[in-house]
Amino acid sequence: HLVTFFLRQGSSLEWAQLMFPHLPSRPLRWQTALRHFGCALLALTLGGGAALAASGERPREYLLVTDFWPPFRVEGENGAMQGIDIELIAKLETRLKIKIRVQRVPWVRALGMMRDGTADLMSGLARTQERETFILYQAPAYAEIRPAFYQLATNAQPIKRYEDLAGTRIGFTRGSVYFEPFDSDNALNKLSATDETQLLRMLLGRRFDVIVGSDLQVDYELRLRGFASEVVKAAYRPAKTTPLYFGISRKSPLAAEASELGRALAELQADGTIAAILARYSLGGKAGERPATP
């Protein structure tokens, strides 16, 4: 506002004479001098902003988008999100001296926000070539899961090998990746749901013959909701593990500092922090036990 004031007033001879009555009245010289003064003030202002940008200071807050996925992201009291990822995010905030705001959105929409740069971060990401075009994965992975198939305990056609999936109605979570050849097998009758909780409900309602999910997540849900005697893990176990990563949108300002996030994750892994967090959930502690709000 001060810069605008001087630039505007530079064309006013009356203002100049009022402010500086002891100086001679030379309209052109005063007009030029005042405008030069305003321009100099503007340059100083912009220069200060450029210096702040050059100093590498980050924005104070970044947006992480995700959805509920127990035990990694659990719905707590009043709908607040808690779980493995939320505890780890708090540790990263402290290490990196930044604020990470967590917003719940459907998983597919979250990926879209990472693609267009309206979100900065995601957690719980499986690595794919397609996602790597718009996401910077941060090594090391902080957890590892395995895909597994689940059926009703009363099902008379147990899944003992991959070929047994043919002719069955298979429920899967929309936007998720599991293993090959399953992900690209278009001959299978695969039907999508929004999350593993909905998958279990639809399996119990006999709308699916079998569902696929991550073993850690589905086992947690079964114990938590008391379905462990009604739903069983299929004998067929894919020989595949899936590491889970934090990822940064390639369009985020945080992308320039990606190495710092990776370094912080490596430190949290090396000092046992990540292992301790996992142990409070179904890895290492009582299976299916929900810890207190972090």
Describe, in plain words, how this protein is organized in 3D.
- This protein is an alpha/beta fold.
- It is built from 10 helices and 12 strands.
- The strands form 4 sheets. The protein has a 5-stranded mixed beta sheet, with helices on one face.
- Helix 1 packs antiparallel against helix 3 and helix 4 packs across helix 9.
- The protein is globular, with a radius of gyration of 29 Å.
- It starts with a helix and ends in a 15-residue tail after the last helix.
- The N terminus and C terminus are likely disordered.
Largest pleated sheet: 5 strands, mixed
The protein's oligomeric status is single chain
Return Rg in Å.
29 Å
The average pLDDT value, as a whole number, equals 81
Q: Span from first to last CA?
A: 46 Å
- Bin the helical content: 25-40%
Structural class: alpha/beta
The fraction of residues in strands falls at 15-25%
Order of helices and strands: HHHEEEHEHEHEEEEHEHEEHH
Strand arrangement across the biggest beta sheet:
9-8-10-7-11
Bulk shape: globular
Low-confidence runs = 1-28, 30-34, 36-55, 283-294
Number of strands: 12
Count the DSSP helices: 10
Features:
disordered N terminus; three-stranded antiparallel beta sheet; disordered C terminus; 37% helix; five-stranded mixed beta sheet; alpha/beta; single chain; 294 residues; 10 helices
Topology:
Elements: H1 2-9, H2 13-19, H3 27-54, E1 61-66, E2 74-75, E3 81-82, H4 84-96, E4 99-104, H5 107-116, E5 121-125, H6 129-132, E6 135-145, E7 147-152, E8 169-173, E9 189-193, H7 196-204, E10 210-214, H8 215-225, E11 231-233, E12 242-249, H9 258-270, H10 273-279
Parallel strand pairs: 1-4, 8-9, 8-10
Antiparallel strand pairs: 2-3, 5-12, 6-12, 7-10, 7-11
Helix pairs in contact: 1-3, 4-9
